[in-house]
Write a structure and sequence with these properties.
Elements: H1 4-12, E1 18-24, E2 27-34, H2 39-48, H3 54-65, H4 80-86, H5 89-100, H6 108-116
Antiparallel strand pairs: 1-2
Helix pairs in contact: 2-3, 3-5
Length: 117
């Protein structure tokens, strides 16, 4: 009999990959990939951000989790100030919301296919 933890790991494990396309005038400007957020990562991000500020948590989540097509981080820790001051809040929130809601729609296979090609 398969253990519950194995079933969950197979269906919802961190090897899954999600993606979100940031578009302007129907043109893809940036494609962001990420692996699911774990409890351990959430705790780490909460410790490194102002835990009282949900905007700070969401921004730190995006900085830590956002990857490019090759699996490299899109943002450096030092980008936080620039992102806060120089980028439209709506664009950042769009990416952050996609990350937080990941798993509610199944984009995993499509993203895996892109990275394998």
């Amino acid at each position: 009999m398969t253990r519950a933890v194995d079933l969950l790991r197979n269906e919802f494990g961190v090897s899954q990959l999600y993606k979100h396309e940031v578009k302007k005038n129907k043109e893809v400007i940036l494609t962001v990939y990420w692996h699911p957020l774990t409890i351990a990562e959430r705790e780490s991000i909460q410790k490194s951000s102002n835990s009282e500020d949900s905007n700070d948590f969401a921004l730190q989540l995006m900085i830590v989790k956002a990857l490019d097509k090759k699996g490299e981080r899109l943002f450096a820790d030092g980008d936080k100030a620039s992102l806060r001051r120089e980028i439209e809040a709506a664009i950042l929130q769009e990416i952050q919301l996609a990350m937080i809601e990941s798993g509610t729609s199944r984009e995993v296979e499509e993203a895996k296919a892109v990275l394998k090609s």
